[in-house]
Each structure stands twice: as structure tokens, then as C-alpha cells.
């Protein structure tokens, strides 16, 4: 009897604690650069909804994702482990789940604290078992549900890759069993729908032309990476994707009880290529479909924020708005961007990286310094913070907030920076790591060290925001010290 009484007390205490816990919503942009929002200086792309959230919360000027490409940055945020330690790279179509199901993740942390958890939007972390082809006509797993989410509605990979269908929990949405879906290869004699192959049928790319890499299976007039057959009734509509994700997120939010906190990871596909904003957003900027898609992303953020207010969830919800990496202009499609080389810094006077050098795929600040906003009306006073913070530290910081103890081997690269996220600590991290194309750089305070056999680089960001003056020859002792520290950090199993 005593056992049952103690168990009841534990369950009751957990319930009472969870009632006081804040809800958490992470809105994750795709390829949204630091300078793509008005709050960070954009004048050519209107972002009133994001700017309002920034004015209501903390706008971080030195907030980072971990990598200059999407898969490793998403992996790091959700696991508290740097992608480079496990060789995590941009995943191809039909890739298996890259997050081990037996490790702690951000949604698992929230579940320990009594939360309901969900992911809506772009996934791009793989689905299915290693060394096994995904059967898209059956249960598609393991996936988000095996790494801690209670509910998922996914763009399985990314919108420039097949399969061009949504997956809700384990099943492809609206799939007709008479038109089975195959990715990579189809069995001999299959009777599935066949789509044009862009490399041999360029005329089929009617939405806009694509480069060689993106000219395989053509869906909705847009060439994609990878081969796909079937699933015609399940195909997404590119121009309605943002609406679909917002609708699914609002549906999830409307089902949540005030007696149990929730964690929602809302992962937008905007402004990743192929950019296909809804017609109501087209022409809203003079920057082609990239600029218009950014306006659409801003609308999505505003719609999520409004839903929280309409459902009376606003005050005690932590809303984080950020991005998986810096901006890119030309990334495989002729979509109205005037920039024809992705290394160029600006498009018609608009620099998605703001004052910082580089963007997606690049090791410079513009690759990982991204919009980073934290709003919690109940606890946070509006401000601008120059504290150095990173998405990889969300797990340890939320563990502190929720009073959940982390074991030594859990989220080993995640460090508690809760005070910085709440605006109490104005300095943040002493150092952090940044990754791009197999290069790992070290930020220590205002110093940035980028390794290289014959082309190592050292920048003082306090006086050289744009990383234009390499001080490697002027500061050899400092460069040596930072190189040694970087090598040590890379060789260890974690930072914590």
C-alpha cells in the first residue's frame, strides 16, 4: 500500500510541476539569413510579424546554428551533439534515420518533464532503418516518433528532393495503394505513375529551369533530386505547402490542454529551393521568388504567434524563431534571383547575411549567425542581447529550466546557457564551434579561428565584422593557442 501511495505522490507532483512549465514552440526557418529580417536590418523584405516578436522578446545579435547546412544543424539542435562527431552530412533521398533511437533528444527531454511533443514541417534527418530500403507503401519508420515526438506531419526530406509527399506519423498522406510509391528504384513490371526525367526532358520543367543536379524527377513542373515513381494522389502542391504546415500546426495547438505543456517543433521549408510561394505572396518584393518566399515565411511565423494568442497560450509559451543556416541565392533553380553565383554577397542591394561574410555552405559568420529570437511574455523582458548563444545548447538549458538531470553521456555538446536565453547573462558562451563542408572553426569571444594546412585564418570580429582582415601572420601565438584548443575540443567526446 505504501508503494502505491508513494507512486501516487510522485505522479501528482509531476502533474503539478508540468502545469507550471512553459509551453515551447521552435519555429525553424530554412536558409533564412541574419539579414533577411527587418529587426536585423533588412529593408527590401518586409517581415512585420517576425519584427513584432523580436520587439516582444530578446533579439540575439550573436545567435548561431551549429553548421552552415541543414541536416547537421538540425541534428545538433535536436541531439545536443555536433554533427561532425558522427559524420552527419546533407542527406540524400531515401536516407535512413540519422538520429539514433537510443539517445536523448530535445523532444525526449520534454517528455521526461511531462510534455506532449510534435513536429510539423521539414524533417531531412532520414527515415527508416540503416541498410534497409524504406517501404513508402507501409509504415515508414523509424522516424520522429522513435526519437521522442508524439505526433509528426512531415516533408520527409527537403522540397528539392523526392519523395514529394507528406508523411503523417508513419503513413504517406493520401497514398492510393493502386499507385504504389517507389523512391530510388522501382520493381520491374510496376504499374505506378511515371514522371518526366528532367535531364532528358527539359521541356517538362515548366515552373522554371533547374541545373543538372536538380533535373531528375519532375513534379509539378519542377525538377528534383532523386528518382520517384507513383504516389500521384499523394503529391504535395508546392505553392500550398506553407498553408498546409500552418494548418497542421494550428490543428495540433488547438488540441492541447492547459493541464499539460507541449513542445512544437515547426520546421518551415521557406525559403529553401525550389522557391514556390503561394500566388498571394508573389510580387511582394523585387527580389524574385526568394524575397517573396521570405514574406511567406514571415506570414507563417505570424500565424503561429496569432494561434498561440487566440488559444490563450501566449503568456506562458516560449517562442523561439531561428534558422538552420545562412542564406543562399542561386542554389540550382532559375527562380528570379539575379544572383547567379551562390558565393555572391547580395542580390539587388539585399544581403541576407547582413554585415557578415558568407552564407550557406561557408565557414564564415554568415553561414551560422542567424536570426535568433526568444519570446516568453510571462518571464522575459524585451531587449537586444549581444550574448554568444547556440542552438546546440537548448537541450541543456531546457533541462535546467525544467529541473531534469542530464547524464554525462546525454547531449554531451550541449551546455547550460539558460541565463543568456532569459536575458540575465549578457555575455553567453566563452566559445562555440562552427561547421561547414567538413571544416570546423572556433569562436572564442570575438576571435574566429578557421583551420587550414596552408590557409588558416584568424579574424577579430570586434573590429572586423566582415572577416576581411586575416590576422594569422600578425598573431601567431594566439593562432597556435586557438588551433590547439580546437583540436582538443574536436578530439573529445563532448564539450560538457
Question: Summarize this, please?
Answer:
With 496 residues, the protein is α/β, with parallel strands linked by helices. It has helices at 2-20, 48-56, 70-79, 106-112, 241-254, 288-310, 365-368, 394-402, 418-421, 476-491, and strands spanning 23-29, 58-64, 116-122, 151-155, 167-168, 171-172, 182-183, 218-219, 222-223, 228-229, 262-267, 317-323, 373-375, 383-390, 431-436, 439-444, 447-450, 457-460.
Describe the structure.
The longest helix is centred in the middle third of the chain and has 23 residues, at 288-310. The strands form 4 sheets. The protein has a 10-stranded mixed β-sheet, with helices on both faces. A 4-stranded antiparallel β-sheet has the order 15-16-17-18, with helices on one face. The model is unreliable at 5-16 (pLDDT under 50). With 496 residues, the protein is an alpha/beta fold. The protein folds into 2 domains: 2-175 and 248-421, Alkaline Phosphatase, subunit A (3-Layer(aba) Sandwich); 446-491, no CATH class. The protein has helices spanning 2-20, 48-56, 70-79, 106-112, 241-254, 288-310, 365-368, 394-402, 418-421, 476-491; strands at 23-29, 58-64, 116-122, 151-155, 167-168, 171-172, 182-183, 218-219, 222-223, 228-229, 262-267, 317-323, 373-375, 383-390, 431-436, 439-444, 447-450, 457-460. The two termini are 42 Å apart. Helix 2 (48-56) crosses helix 6.
Amino acid at each position: 500500500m505504501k508503494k502505491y501511495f508513494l507512486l501516487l505522490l510522485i505522479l501528482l507532483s509531476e502533474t503539478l510541476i508540468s502545469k507550471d512549465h512553459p509551453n515551447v514552440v521552435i519555429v525553424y526557418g530554412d536558409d533564412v539569413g541574419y539579414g533577411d529580417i527587418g529587426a536585423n536590418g533588412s529593408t527590401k523584405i518586409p517581415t512585420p510579424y517576425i519584427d513584432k516578436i523580436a520587439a516582444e522578446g530578446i533579439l540575439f545579435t550573436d545567435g548561431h546554428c551549429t553548421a552552415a547546412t541543414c541536416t547537421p544543424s538540425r541534428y545538433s539542435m535536436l541531439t545536443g551533439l555536433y554533427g561532425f562527431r558522427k559524420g552527419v552530412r546533407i542527406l540524400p533521398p531515401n536516407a535512413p534515420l540519422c538520429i539514433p533511437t537510443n539517445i536523448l533528444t530535445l523532444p525526449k527531454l520534454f517528455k521526461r518533464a511531462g510534455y506532449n511533443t510534435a513536429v510539423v514541417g521539414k524533417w531531412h534527418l532520414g527515415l527508416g532503418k540503416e541498410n534497409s530500403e524504406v517501404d513508402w507503401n507501409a509504415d515508414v519508420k523509424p522516424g520522429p516518433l522513435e526519437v521522442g515526438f508524439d505526433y509528426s506531419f512531415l516533408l520527409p526530406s527537403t522540397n528539392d528532393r523526392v519523395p514529394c509527399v507528406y508523411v503523417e506519423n508513419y503513413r504517406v498522406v493520401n497514398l492510393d495503394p493502386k499507385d504504389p510509391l517507389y523512391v530510388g528504384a522501382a520493381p520491374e513490371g510496376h504499374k505506378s505513375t511515371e514522371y518526366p526525367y528532367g535531364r532528358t526532358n527539359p521541356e517538362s520543367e515548366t515552373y522554371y529551369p533547374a541545373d543538372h543536379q536538380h533535373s531528375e524527377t519532375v513534379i509539378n513542373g519542377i525538377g528534383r533530386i532523386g528518382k520517384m515513381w507513383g504516389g500521384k494522389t499523394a503529391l504535395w502542391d508546392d505553392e500550398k505547402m506553407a498553408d498546409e504546415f500552418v494548418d497542421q500546426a494550428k490543428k495540433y495547438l488547438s488540441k492541447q490542454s492547459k493541464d499539460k505543456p507541449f513542445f512544437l517543433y515547426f520546421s518551415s521549408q521557406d525559403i529553401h529551393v525550389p522557391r514556390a510561394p503561394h500566388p498571394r505572396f508573389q510580387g511582394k518584393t523585387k527580389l524574385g521568388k526568394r524575397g517573396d518566399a521570405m514574406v511567406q515565411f514571415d506570414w507563417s511565423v505570424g500565424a503561429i504567434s496569432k494561434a498561440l494568442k487566440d488559444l490563450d497560450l501566449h503568456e506562458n509559451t516560449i517562442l523561439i524563431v531561428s534558422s538552420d543556416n545562412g542564406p543562399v541565392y542561386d542554389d540550382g533553380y532559375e527562380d528570379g534571383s539575379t544572383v547567379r553565383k551562390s558565393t555572391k554577397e547580395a542580390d539587388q542591394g539585399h544581403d541576407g547575411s547582413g554585415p557578415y561574410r558568407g552564407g550557406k555552405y561557408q565557414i564564415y559568420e554568415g553561414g551560422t549567425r542567424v536570426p535568433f529570437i526568444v519570446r516568453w511574455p510571462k518571464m522575459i523582458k524585451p531587449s537586444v542581447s549581444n550574448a554568444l548563444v547556440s542552438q546546440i545548447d537548448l537541450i541543456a538549458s531546457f533541462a535546467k529550466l525544467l529541473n531534469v538531470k542530464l547524464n554525462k553521456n546525454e547531449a554531451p555538446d550541449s551546455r547550460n546557457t539558460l541565463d543568456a536565453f532569459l536575458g540575465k547573462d549578457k555575455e553567453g558562451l566563452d566559445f562555440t564551434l562552427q561547421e561547414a563542408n567538413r571544416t570546423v572553426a572556433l569562436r572564442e569571444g570575438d576571435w574566429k579561428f578557421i583551420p587550414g594546412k596552408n590557409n588558416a585564418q584568424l579574424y577579430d570580429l570586434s573590429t572586423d565584422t566582415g572577416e576581411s582582415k586575416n590576422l594569422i601572420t600578425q598573431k601567431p601565438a594566439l593562432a597556435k593557442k586557438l588551433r590547439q584548443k580546437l583540436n582538443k575540443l574536436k578530439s573529445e567526446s563532448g564539450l560538457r
